[in-house]
């Protein structure tokens, strides 16, 4: 078993990865036989957990330029076991995450609001967007988030994969679309974001993949801001300080192609100003716009 994953290991085409996903989604959610004739190894989940830390979002007003906040962490862990297998194969097991919905509005008095958006979702072209690290598509990460089992091996092997996620943005006190704004005028923040997380087993030789478990989670927060107050006394969390807990589903949600390939959420997001009157204006364009034709970013498996 090799817990280290090199950037160059397991490269494959997007079409091979997408074609490999088991269309039946392995709805048992407990263990999978990796071949129809049961010759290959059996991979099963020994233990799985998903939770969000039971603590409120922390607000930081130490900067005169931006309001900062940090949400509690979403955490997932799974211990998996693979049976002995004689073939000279390698299996990668790990987490894949995709965002399905996002509302992220920062209101500036009666002038309007800024909105972080994914054009792929707002246009309806995609149902989800990959939330990988942008380097190891489609995996959420390449350290504790994945593990590789190498054969041949004559014993049972176990490993635990972990992932965690939270939000810690900076929101400007002043309307970023108005360069002449001198006084703070941020009055309200609302964020509502939803995700699917999949535990996936992938044969790095045959390119066949299996969804082992699906988790659904969301993060919702609302902050009221009085820009007339002194710095350090402006913002108040008004949403429920106890986060809604994730759900480990008793069925598997299919993984669409768009959740496995570029762009990822960090490179696709754009900041849009929605004035009270007039048309929306792009304040910060998506990074992905200048990269979407690069063949080097097709996949990093």
UniProtKB/TrEMBL annotation:
<feature type="compositionally biased region" description="Low complexity">
    <location>
        <begin position="18"/>
        <end position="35"/>
    </location>
</feature>
<feature type="region of interest" description="Disordered">
    <location>
        <begin position="16"/>
        <end position="35"/>
    </location>
</feature>
<protein>
    <recommendedName>
        <fullName>Protein FAM78A</fullName>
    </recommendedName>
</protein>
<dbReference type="InterPro" id="IPR029638">
    <property type="entry name" value="FAM78"/>
</dbReference>
């Amino acid at each position: 078993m090799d817990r280290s994953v090199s950037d160059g290991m397991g490269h494959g085409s997007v079409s091979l990865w997408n074609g490999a996903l088991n269309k039946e989604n392995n709805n048992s959610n407990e263990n999978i036989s990796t071949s129809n004739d049961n010759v290959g190894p059996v991979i099963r989940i020994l233990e799985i957990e998903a939770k969000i830390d039971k603590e409120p979002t922390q607000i930081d007003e130490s900067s005169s330029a931006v309001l900062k906040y940090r949400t509690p962490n979403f955490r997932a862990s799974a211990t998996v076991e693979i049976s002995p297998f004689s073939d000279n194969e390698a299996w990668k097991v790990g987490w894949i995450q995709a965002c399905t919905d996002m509302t992220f509005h920062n209101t500036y008095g009666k002038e309007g609001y800024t909105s972080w958006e994914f054009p792929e979702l707002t246009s309806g072209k995609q149902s989800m967007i990959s939330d990988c690290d942008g380097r190891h598509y489609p995996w959420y990460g390449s350290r504790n988030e994945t593990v590789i089992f190498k054969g041949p091996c004559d014993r049972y092997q176990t490993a635990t994969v972990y992932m965690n996620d939270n939000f810690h943005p900076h929101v400007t006190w002043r309307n970023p679309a108005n360069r002449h704004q001198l006084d703070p005028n941020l009055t309200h923040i609302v964020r509502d974001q939803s995700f699917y997380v999949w535990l996936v087993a992938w044969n790095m030789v045959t390119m066949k993949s299996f969804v082992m478990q699906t988790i659904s989670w969301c993060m919702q927060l609302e902050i009221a801001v009085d820009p007339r107050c002194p710095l350090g006394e402006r913002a108040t969390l008004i949403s429920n300080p106890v986060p809604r807990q994730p759900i480990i589903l008793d069925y598997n949600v299919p993984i669409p192609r768009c959740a496995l390939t570029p762009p990822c959420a960090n490179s696709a997001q754009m900041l849009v100003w929605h004035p009270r009157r007039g048309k929306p204006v792009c304040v910060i364009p998506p990074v992905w716009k200048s990269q979407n034709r690069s063949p080097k970013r097709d996949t990093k498996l």
